[in-house]
């Protein structure tokens, strides 16, 4: 269908159907054009495991309200060619939901993740990239935009943080926002519009915690209970800028990690 959520209206999508959790498959929720009016809300219930997550697929998006993906994924066809209105782009929609630079998934509109907000390890978030790959079993093109519940630092959205992601953030930092090397794919993991020490702090923390726990790629669940970090180990988002100042002096002699 082509859902329309009017002002103060809501659509709630369940976490699973009879065939989802029992067979460990991703549940595809394919809609037509999705329109969410001001103060409207679409909520995708949190999946019990990452293997049984939902992927919401829409042909176009107009969002003046809020879309809560929880720990699920999102495909917006033609989202990279003007298919998203109101805030102008998927990146802006996520930035609104994240409430960057000072917030933490407490925005009043845009695309949010209550699962990331509830994650006391602060290791999970929403990342995005353009399409052209098979994503959650959905064939996509270069004009599509993909949103994934994943780890901070997962620049290529493959569910892990490793040397390939460090190559991306190094390139983004070196480009200083030129040559279209901007956004999540090039290391802007806190949606503040720049790639700096705060973003390196995020990817370093995730890399270190995942490797310390021995968690496998795509092991994410709501709350990241399988990881070993504690709130005391992980900086709050509002302190990352301060940590970034100290990290800047180290950037010139960084070594790329390999997983």
Topology (elements, then pairings):
Layout: E1 4-5, E2 10-13, H1 20-23, E3 27-30, E4 33-36, E5 41-44, E6 54-58, E7 60-63, E8 66-68, E9 73-76, E10 84-85, H2 90-98, E11 110-112, H3 114-118, E12 124-130, E13 134-135, E14 138-139, E15 145-151, H4 163-175, H5 197-213, H6 240-248
Helix pairs in contact: 5-6
What does this structure look like?
The longest helix has 17 residues, at 197-213. The model is unreliable at 17-22 and 222-259 (pLDDT under 50). The termini are far apart. A 5-stranded mixed β-sheet has the order 3-6-9-15-12. The chain has a 4-stranded parallel β-sheet with strand order 1-4-7-10, with no helix packed on it. By secondary structure, it is an alpha/beta fold. α5 crosses α6. It has 6 helices and 15 strands. It is globular and about 45 Å long.
Spatial extent as radius of gyration? 17 Å
Number of strands: 15
Biggest beta sheet attributes: 5 strands, mixed
What is the end-to-end distance?
Answer: 43 Å
Helix-strand pattern: EEHEEEEEEEEHEHEEEEHHH
Walk across the major sheet and give the strand order: 3-6-9-15-12
Helix count, DSSP H or I runs of 4 or more residues: 6
Shape: globular
Rounded mean pLDDT score:
79
Which regions have little confidence, pLDDT < 50, spanning 5+ residues?
Answer: 17-22, 222-259
Strand proportion, as a percent range, falls in: 15-25%
Helix and strand composition category: alpha/beta
Q: Give the helix proportion (percent range).
A: 10-25%
